[in-house]
Structures
1.
Amino acid sequence: MEYHNPVLLKETVDGLDIKPDGVYVDVTFGGGGHSREIMRRLGPKGKLFAFDQDEDAQANIIKDDRFTLIPENFRFLKRYLRFYGIKEVDGVLGDFGVSSHQFDVAERGFSTRFDAGLDMRMNQKGAISAYNVVNEYDEQQLRKMFFEYGELKNGGALANTIVNARKENPIKSTDELKKVLGRFLPAHKSNKILAQIYQAIRIEVNEEIDVLKEFLEQTLEVLKPGGRLSVISYHSLEDRLVKRFIRNGMFEGEPERDMFGNFEVPFKAIGKLIVPTEEEIEINNRARSAKLRIAEKV
């Protein structure tokens, strides 16, 4: 199973400040690139737990007694760590978004390059697919999804066009969706707009924003004081949430102040935002929008 090079490999794992006998979690195992680098730095008493709900990731399992792959969504981070008797860990790594492998398997429906059934489920057993979203959501739900998750100002017009088109026949494939929305896809910008449309549907199908929030809140509970959080985001929605959470320990509003008027926050940012070099982007185009943030639990 071909998986591409992980983005910002050294920087992300460096951010964890690996202790040889520590316990770490990679919540986005995928092809195992980040996990293998963590394992390389662990000693004989170290442990790594990895999460991935995609069945294809099972093919990349690391055969090592120190490694455990949990085939579940990382929104259940705390629950499954407790199941394995782990209450606190030294570091958590996440590389969000769609893996190169998922983009490259045409039938998964993630890529704008291929014609495929409307799927886009990261968990292939998930109840809701892109077909359900496109054909069953009402106009208001679709408008909200395109506006919030695709950051498309013409979300209302897109939603209205889909609702009218599906009255004739269900929209079954990615090519059919492109044809329905053809007038919104001028040649010079079609790839960018299509990517935003696909992103919006994919985030909705996989509940990515809710999952990210649930995960970040749980890191506060599972990280030891001094434990590290090292996460890569690929679009502004995710990065804003990560940035706010690291800064305030919450997604909205301001944290409470102590008796001296200082904010009481659970994390301190380590270094500044890290983005890939031009050399890395040239080798791995997927890296172009990656943003890495590292934080330490206070």
Note: The mean pLDDT is 92.
2.
Amino acid sequence: MTTSSRAGRRGVGRLGLVGLCLLLGAATGASAQATRVEPAEFRCPSVLGVGIDTGRIYCDVLIGEEVADGIIVVIPPHRGPATVTFALHGRHTYSEDEVARGRGYARYLVSTVVATTELVLSRPMVLAEFRSEADLADRIGGGAGPGGVKAVAPVATEGIRVTVEEDVTEISIVGIELDVQRRDGREQFTSTGRPIAVISDVQVEYRAR
């Protein structure tokens, strides 16, 4: 075998290896592109505001009797199941004066439901306790309080994950009940239209069609 022949074979081997790497890279890239994770489009009937620390949009969860009463999350066209994730928070009205007088404690137990028009998908709950300002998950801008923040703020964070089937195009997050325990007693709220929790960071993971 001549030197030129050996060199030619080595060249072909290198080209073959490069081609294989390119093919593997393309396959990996295609696989990675097949699954998308992105902020979800959602329709919020009551926007609380934008977080000072996180920049997140916070949306009130209202008690409702129908799917239409809730926060509607739009699911893009997808192949196979898709997954919706969001953060569920308690909803607290902060009073510096009450905290200073030792009356700021509150414990919230929130019950919600995630559903389509035909099926209940999940029943998320969040348990949140407030003792001091450090317990707030964020502060909301646009208020009349010190620093331009609202008195209402999210407290505690429960990560929620809901799987939806291929034919589902939207889901609804609806409030069911709020149980509040304070130092001076306990209250339960079930009246339609009352804000009882807050959600933020709504994301959808799916394989595009």
Note: The chain has two domains: 1-37, 40-207.
3.
Amino acid sequence: MRTIIIDDERLARAELKKMMQAFPEIEVIDEASNANEAIEKIELLQPDLIFLDIQMPGKTGFEMLTELDTVPQVIFTTAFDKYALKAFEVSALDYLLKPIDQKRLEAAIKKVHIGEARENREGEGFSGNEMLTDKSQVFVKDGDRCWFIKLSEVRLFESVGNYAKVFFSSHKPLILKSLNALEERLDPKTFFRANRKHIINLQAVEKIEPYFNNGLLVELKGGEKIEISRRQTVKLKEKMSF
């Protein structure tokens, strides 16, 4: 598991690096003292994990994340507890307050998805070309908000012009990606093109019932009701062995 420590305080980086010696499964491959330096090193080295300070000269840690195409797993390190809620809104693994306690660090390390690290580093995000499965993790940016989520959490994609609305949890951010482009990358075992405007996660289907013109109406776990076109109904019945 390869990691980069990002903090504007040299002593804080040195202390954390020393504490990391207790975890041989984690290799500290580099350090960065500000967001711009960190962005360059993350793009070059493609770490599996970053320890990220929030308040730094120039860009904050949150602002840095919005500029990355591929986001590693993130553990925030900060002297301020007021950012905790926002940290978890961007799907950080953990939020460590300075001075960092060794036991809290150990608890945070246990949350790191070591077995999935390489898979997550290779092409995750919607901007690559690799096939995305329900286990893939993707970075979603919408304005100044960002999330790092597993595709299994996404129940629906909805076309909005040249954009697609991504439905997960209570969020519905827009990404600059057409539904056709998404369909080419999403695993057809999990994601199904319901009609011209929607791709659904079959694992998120709560209920299916007959609908107008020999089609079907599916209700997703979030309460959304999506019409399956007559043409796609035939394909869905074949896929799900109706």
Note: Residues 115-124 have pLDDT under 50 and may be disordered.
4.
Amino acid sequence: MTEFWVSSGHHLTQRDAGGGLAVTDELILAYLARPELVPPEEACAAERALYASLTAAPRRPVAAREIAALADADARENWEVILAFRDRLLGARSVEAAYLSLVRGNLQGVPSLFLNQLVHLILRNALDGCDDPFVLRAAELFFRPQRVSFHEGRVLLADAEVIAAREGSAPLSPLVAMLGQEAATELDVLTEANAWTYWSRSDAFTMALDLGSDPRSRAGLARVIEVFVQHLLNAAVRVSPLDRLEDSDWRWFVGLDAEGTRIGNALWRGETLDAAAQARMLVAFSLVFDDPAQVEPAVGARPVYLLLASPQDRTLQVKPHNLIVGLPLAAGREAG
């Protein structure tokens, strides 16, 4: 099996009997190693003592007075956030269960970075053994913001952080010029011919995805959605890309990002999309549950439509948790 996404931290966890990932000391230590938490040279003695004690015993309870004793206000805030997150992880039976608890509850105070890291880890587990780079590159949309570009019928998605890091560092390459940014090196668009190179740079996130004219990319994203729903909700679904969204009996939809939700709400109200909104639509899918008994009776065997659209600033942030809280599971069928 070819390795991929080492940066997910998959090697720091252990798979439990149910197929989920157990929260290990090594995983908690990886969070504690974040630069926001490593005490700087000017840190007070209390902060240094707290850090040393947690690196020795990452599960130990931390009293509120220990945080209050820190001299730096930013440090106090950082520690409050990470310890609250740590305690949510430790209180769950698996990484997957912790994620479900977070997204079904109150996300206030949980940095999006932490949610993205959990999705990265969960998808690495769910896609273990996957040998299709189109599926894996599409899965990056679930935990890595993307920069969107429209050009001659192509819809290109490039990693937003990679583009930002290279911005202004070198003369324009043709592809990066098309993306409206500057970069130091070429970004390759994933194709059948170069797909083999994905494995050596899966943690660099340097391949662009053609979501507009390459059916393998849309099929890859459809497969990611199927795997994500099956893994977290224990529900088998079939997801298919659509050329157009035409249904006189539209029962349910889920926006895969904020703009997709906004457009879906407008369509639900019977509004006509203007040309600009239509142009921002990236892809629509139909999702059908294999077992209609798992679905709200009002939806039953009818498809659920999934909408993904580019925001006006063209920085796309997919919200995979919308699938968890937005799909019409039957009452009492909250799986996971």
Note: Confidence is low (pLDDT under 50) at residues 174-185.
